[in-house]
Amino acid sequence: MKFMFGERWHEAYPQATMGVLALQGMSNLRPATLLEAARKELELELRGRYADFDRAALKALPAIKAYDEFYKPFKKTYHLLLQLESILNGKSIPSGDALVSAMFMAELQDLLLTAGHDLDQISGPVRFDAAQGSERYERMNGEIQVLKAGDLYTTDDTGPLSSVIYGPDRRTRIQPATTAALFTTYGVPGIGSDQITAHLRRLQELICTFSPGTEVIQLGIYG
């Protein structure tokens, strides 16, 4: 696959990076027993790890702090902070298609913002850029979203695939029949390349628990 950056990305966030994991040959059934067990184990681990943390302490965690700084000008709260708080309050990690479940688990473990797409629905090269404020796409909930100027986003020849503030699109969403996927991790300023690489390898390992025949097409850091 070909990946490139738009000029606005480097002008707005010269230190930001993107992590990319492209996979093929996987099965995307509902989570198998091993993944379900890992999901339950992660819930307990997170509740133990952050047992004494209030919101201020969670926001001081290096990864959450980096994303929080990015979200602040947009008057938004980092959504993984909200999801982590819900897990700590007793809710379960969402369990749906295996690929999506694995992505959620890796996100919560590392607190790094990741979007997943059906690779076969992507057209042309993938470009990373900072929004001008006129770009629009259909979100997962079916709503048409206009990006805010300065938001980081990923696009192909058809249109945006995801953005930091508003998440992934509906057009390239992962579905039960997905056999090839692209995962992108937004490395906003303050997130290191080593963190992203470890995170994507963790995601790869989780996927291999239910789909051992999965092949890596590409794993790398851009920026």
Question: If you average the pLDDT, what whole number results?
Answer: 95
Strand content: 15-25%
Largest sheet: 5 strands, mixed
CATH topology: Phenylalanyl-tRNA Synthetase, Chain B, domain 3
Count of discrete alpha- or pi-helical segments spanning 4 or more residues: 7
Strand runs, count: 11
As residue ranges, the low-confidence spans are: none
What is the distance, rounded to the nearest whole angstrom, between the alpha carbons of the first and last residues?
A: 16 Å
Spell out the CATH superfamily: Phenylalanyl-trna Synthetase, Chain B, domain 3
Radius of gyration: 17 Å
Q: Helical proportion? A: 25-40%
Task: Sum up the structure in keywords.
223 residues; alpha+beta; 5-stranded mixed β-sheet
Protein architecture, described:
This protein has helices spanning 7-12, 33-49, 55-59, 62-71, 79-88, 98-110, 193-210, and strands at residues 3-5, 17-24, 114-118, 126-130, 136-138, 144-146, 152-155, 160-163, 167-168, 180-187, 215-222. The longest helix is centred in the last third of the chain and has 18 residues, at 193-210. A hairpin with a 4-residue loop joins strand 7 and strand 8. It is globular. The model has no long low-confidence stretch (mean pLDDT 95). It is of the alpha+beta class. Helices cover 35% and strands 24% of the residues. It has a single domain (3-222), classed as 3-Layer(bba) Sandwich (Phenylalanyl-tRNA Synthetase, Chain B, domain 3).
At a glance:
The chain is α+β, with helices and mostly antiparallel strands and 223 residues long.
Summarize the SSE layout with pairings.
Layout lengths: L2 E3 L1 H6 L4 E8 L8 H17 L5 H5 L2 H10 L7 H10 L9 H13 L3 E5 L7 E5 L5 E3 L5 E3 L5 E4 L4 E4 L3 E2 L11 E8 L5 H18 L4 E8 L1
Parallel strand pairs: 1-4
Antiparallel strand pairs: 2-10, 2-11, 3-10, 4-7, 5-6, 7-8, 8-9
Helix pairs in contact: 2-6, 6-7
